[in-house]
Amino acid sequence: MMTSPNSDLQLINYGSTSRYNDNDADVHPDRVWNLMLECSQELQSLPYITLDVFLPNNVMVIVKCSMRKTLSYVKTNALEQASKLPFPSLKTGDNYVFYGIGPSGDHEELYDESKTLKALNLYLPVLCMVEPEGNHAEKQISMKIGAAMGIMISELETHLTEELIICRLDLFFTCEELLCRRGVHGTEHYAFPEENHLLTKNRELVNKAMEAHMNSATPNNSKETKGFEVWYWTKEDERAFVERRKKGIGSTEDDEVCMCTKVTCLKADEASPSSLIDTALDQLSMEGKIGDEDPDQFILQVIGKRSFMTKEIALSSYEYIRKCFDNYRSPNVILRRRDIVCLDYKPPNPMTTTNWHRSMKRTYYFGPQNTPIEKNQRTKYLWDLEDYLRIRVHSASHILHEYDSIFVKVTLKIGTHEIEEVSTGMVSPSNPRWYEKWLQFNVYLKDLPPGVEVCFLLCGKRNRRSREITQIGYCILRLFDWKYRLLQGKTTLQLWPIITEIKNKDLFGRPIGQNYVGDSASIDIEFQEHSAVIQFPKIDNMQAYIDRMDQRDDDSNTSDLMSDFTSVSSNDSLLEELNDKLMQISEIKNVEDIKDEEVEFLWANLSRVASQYADCLVFLADSPLIWRNRERVSRLYIRLYNRAWNRLTDQAALQLLDRRYVDRSVRDFAVYCLDASLDTDQLLLYLMPLVQALKYEPNAGSRLAQVLLSRALENYRIGHTFFWLLKSELAQQTGESVFVKSPFYIRICILMESYCRANADHLDSMIKQVNMVATLTRLSETVKTIGQKEGSVRLRNQLMELRTDMEDMDSPLDPNDRLGKLVVEDAKVLGSAKLPFMLTWLNPEPLSRLFNPHHVIIFKNGDDLRQDMLALQVMRIMDALWKSSNYDFCLTLYEVLPMGKNIGMIQVVQNCSTLFQIHKSVTGGLNMDVTLFNTYIQKMNGSNYVKYVESIDRFTLSLVGYCVATYVIGITDRHQDNIMLTEDGRLFHIDFGHFLGHTKRKLGIKRDRAPFILTNHFLYVVTKGRTNPRDSYDFKKFRKLCIEAYMMLHGSARLFVTMFRLMICMGLTELQSPEQVKYISNSLRYNESPENAMAHFAQVFDETAKNDTATKLNWFSHTIKHTMF
After folding, report:
1. Are strands 259-263 and 97-101 parallel, antiparallel or unpaired?
2. φ and ψ at residue 646, rounded to 5 degrees
3. Is pLDDT above 70 for 555?
4. What is the pLDDT at residue 250?
5. Where are the domains of the chain?
6. How many angstroms separate the CA atoms of 248 and 99, rounded?
7. Is the pLDDT of residue 575 over 80?
8. What residues does the PIK helical domain cover (predicted)?
9. Mind listing the pLDDT tens digit for each residue in 52-87?
10. Quick one: 201 exposed, middle or buried, by C-beta within 10 A (0-12, 13-18, 19+)?
């Protein structure tokens, strides 16, 4: 039967005539309505239904099925029937949605295909299948997102629970809100590549200003005498350049048509970009090179880099300017016309709303404010219950018969603190049933905090007479679900197997929830039923409760917050004593060291703590003394909710995101503080640990996820790094089908999908990068089978065919770098064990040939680069801390990006050589002469003594930075091929495959026995060739700088300890437990006074500088290995 129902009337008429046989030609509208109501009531009462389904190709099919069948079943059945008919073929089912007749007689879109027919409340047994408007564009975007993520959206949607559905919707709403307020025009565009610069707010981790460079051997004023070199080209030449770049045509014409003027009359700490533009144009005009130009039409671009300076701030605030002056170079910038540059940064297209989002939004939300729909369920608040917590263990299954008896330990805990433990009796594994009554806890239900967890530990005894107990498996649950509802009823728990015995404190950091990996032992348990949904009280309930408590306390003059120190405003001595004691408590380094009486003292002075000692929240939020008392929980929640708690420092806020802190309100407040505190550059420093902190979030739709998504959409640099960090996390589990069930895997997928959907205009760029990585991975697997020499030839041949897919794209390492033409003839396979590729691209930015002609990247397949990225990220934070005190140690912090499982890219620092290469090129042989590196630096500078001194200055400063950094982090495997020296004198370390003191051994002997690398070769350079360097002024200054650099890190030891604790869940081989983080605590002397820490490092330094025999032996063996064999 063929028909085309194009109107509501046709559907109504069809229903009335076919079902009720009303042959009256003049049907009254009321009659039609009554027929519809009768039909609807009849449908709801029938167990089965006969549906007329109209298909997009104007064909109608009939589907007979139970009312319990879903819309998905109806669609599959209808399309299956249609495929057998001789009519135009249809697309797959995911291209269509159903329309039905709603209560008002209008078309109603039915997007949720998981609903049963009975739940739909159909008014007529008629459905119309159509392809929604914009469906093709939606499908295209979804396919691109799937290609970028590595998992198709349709597959992702099959794994969504109600919590994950709400999370996905909330992230979508976050995107909608953010896209309405982010910058999309001109230089305020979210993707506009503004050069890194300082902000006037928050000085904690950035340079305060470009003041005197206090560490330099060269007079400060000599650094700015070089002035600024400003380049100019005509509008026609600039447009011609843009056109050539669009076509991928490289040219050296830019160098010839550009003209340059040198501006020396401006001071970097006083002049702004606009004043530099004005001065440069005036000079060019006076020189007769140009006519009149409007300065407002120009902006400054860094030569050789897609980076601009447009803010009305001091030029010294820009990182590029500071680096140039600190390295005795003139900054080079080119005048670009604002309107031409901004053509590359157009407003993005609106974000598409998918059928899924429309469907689920209609199911779970209503109104323009997206108010959640509350199900009509009987609800009680937790504080309405008058009972103690009870849990029952019924039975166990899949138990090995090697045990004579088994039992279950049930432990209630908050964070790392055990509240109470109760055990079942012993039963035989042949009949693992417990017939005993409920396990009773001495915990009143009213006093349960929302972050409380219960751990089930299944144990067995192999011999009844033996006291030895073997742990079989465990499962940790939160007593309150993601909606703050108390768990009730029976359930079966799949246990995580236990390989080695664990103590209760060792459960810290282990996965929450059931084992999703495979078959394992399981137990059947039951939580007490309460004949209603038990909800944790909301903030209004808490406020009302506190108001009642305060009224009672006013009447009885006994308050939980009363102490001998609360009324001290009129007594200066008591006030001083109070502040001294609070200061003493706030300076406690480890949360584990605080005593109960100190927690009580903090609580007794809560108002003062919240306003003046806000970081003490880390003590209160960890203490069971707070969480086991509902009045205290309520008071703390109210303060955090009303922001009546001063902002935390970044270190304290990061610490509250550790696994130790399980309360959502506390974690949300920490995220609020970080979001308000961190600017773009600072957030990039912390982005890696913050992504890892997502694993510790109790629920999917966390505040941390929303803030990270918002900041990623506000700034494309953050978003680019965020995308690849998430991509790397997914890749650690890709290939193992069981991990698709992982809750964290799905969370990351949802977060990544939200970012990609909101930044759909950049999807092509993302996919091009992803495809390039996939192509290089395939080539790498081929090369590994044929070796380095033949592999280099094969690589170049393959790249010649594939080059167009790897050109004219954003660099995965830095979106501010543009990869131009691939230089195929320079591609080669390196000789290290994993046979990495070294690839070279031309830099397409104007005048790059003069200053930065190439981008060189190493692609590596076979090593986990996440550890390298972590080590470099920690060094970046160290560098920021040093610069915040006006110490620039000339660190060379190249980019490393993990892009898959044991796959990634490394930025190649150009114009440098390894110490081993220098040894071979300068002297050769097995012994390394003490004058070697000083001779090399002299050779690089020729007869120019000033440049030689500048190079020595850079060498000394960089040696300070890397001596301290590698010591603190415990970097080992420091042979000559892992240390490099640039042509301008900067020393730097590479390859951080071993840290936290883990070292390689040969015949049981540690290869690295020195705390850090400091040999006579280096000291000879530092002292400019003195034969007895340790008695020189330069050495004493070098030693002083090392101690000062170390002490600055000691002052921020808490930050580094917190960072490494957050990274435990990353799964790195050398960072698996809190025990390994103790290396950082020890190296920074975290628990000791500054005086003791300084004395300790001074002793380490003196011992290392006094004897370099261990390092020389290690280097000698490396030379023999790579020279003789």
Report:
1. unpaired
2. -65, 155
3. no
4. 60
5. 37-133, 137-180+650-786, 225-344, 386-529, 536-551+582-646, 880-891+908-1124
6. 49
7. yes
8. 568-758
9. 899 988 889 999 988 888 888 999 999 999 888 888
10. exposed
DSSP 759: T
Residue 58 phi, psi dihedral angles, 5° rounding: 65, 30
Stronger pLDDT, 688 or 731, i.e. the higher one:
688
Consecutive H or E run containing 936: helix 932-941
Contacts of 960 (CB under 8 A, 6+ apart): 215, 889, 1038, 1041, 1042, 1045
Cβ contact 472:406 at 8 Å: yes
Rg (CA), the chain: 34
CATH of 880-891+908-1124 given 3.40.50.300, 1.10.1070.11, 3.40.980.10, 1.10.287.70: 1.10.1070.11
Position with higher pLDDT, 940 vs 560: 940
Query: How far from chain centre, in Å, is Cα 224?
Result: 39
CATH number of the 37-133 domain? 3.10.20.90
Q: Helix H segments across 491-595?
A: 539-556, 572-586
Assess whether pLDDT exceeds 70 at residue 821: yes
Q: What is the average per-residue pLDDT within 304-314?
A: 93
Q: Could you report the per-residue pLDDT of 675-727, keeping only the tens digit for each?
A: 999 998 899 999 999 999 999 999 999 999 999 999 999 999 999 999 999 99
Single-letter amino acid code for the residue at 970: G
Angle at which helix 1074-1083 crosses helix 1053-1062, to 10 degrees, equals 160
Classify 225-344 by CATH class: alpha beta
So what's the pLDDT on residue 35? Answer: 57
Instruction: Could you please state the CATH topology (level 3) that the domain comprising 137-180+650-786 is classified under.
Output: 1.25.40
3-state secondary structure of 692: helix
- Position 369 scores a pLDDT of 64
Which contiguous run of DSSP H or E holds residue 890?
A: none
Residues whose CB is less than 8 angstroms from the CB of residue 420 and which lie 6 or more positions away in sequence, other chains included: 411, 412, 441, 442, 443
On the question of pLDDT at 220 being above 60, the answer is: no
pTM: 0.88
Asked if residue 393 lies in contact with residue 408, where contact means CB atoms within 8 angstroms, the answer is: yes
Could you tell me if residue 316 is left (phi over 0), alpha (psi between -120 and 50 degrees) or otherwise beta? alpha
Q: Report the alpha-carbon distance of residue 43 to residue 48 in Å, rounded.
A: 8
Please tell me the chain's helix, strand, coil percentages from 3-state DSSP, rounded to the nearest 5: 45, 15, 35
The percentage of residues in the chain with a pLDDT greater than 70, rounded to a whole number, is 88
DSSP-derived secondary structure for 1055-1089: HHHHHHHHGGGG-BTTB-SHHHHHHHHHHTTTTS-
Neighbours of 2 (CB within 10 A): 11
Do the domains 37-133 and 225-344 sit in the same CATH topology, yes or no? yes
Handedness of CA 730, 809, 190, 875 (dihedral sign): positive
In 435-532, where do the E strands start and end? 439-444, 453-461, 470-478, 489-494, 496-497, 522-527
Helix 716-731 / helix 135-149 crossing angle, nearest 10 deg: 70
Longest dimension (CA), the chain: 117
Which has the closest alpha carbon to 652: 666, 638, 641, 663? 666
- According to DSSP, the β-strands at 332-337 and 228-232 are parallel
Q: What is the pLDDT of residue 222?
A: 43
What is the Cα–Cα distance from 573 to 55, expressed in whole angstroms? Answer: 86
Percentage of the chain with pLDDT > 90? 59
Is the confidence at residue 970, as pLDDT, over 90? yes
Q: What's the chain's length in residues?
A: 1125
Could you tell me the two tokens for 481? 């679900």
Note the pLDDT tens digit of each residue in 104-119: 566 777 777 777 887 7
CA 495, distance to chain mean position in Å, is 29
The CATH classification number of 386-529 equals: 2.60.40.150
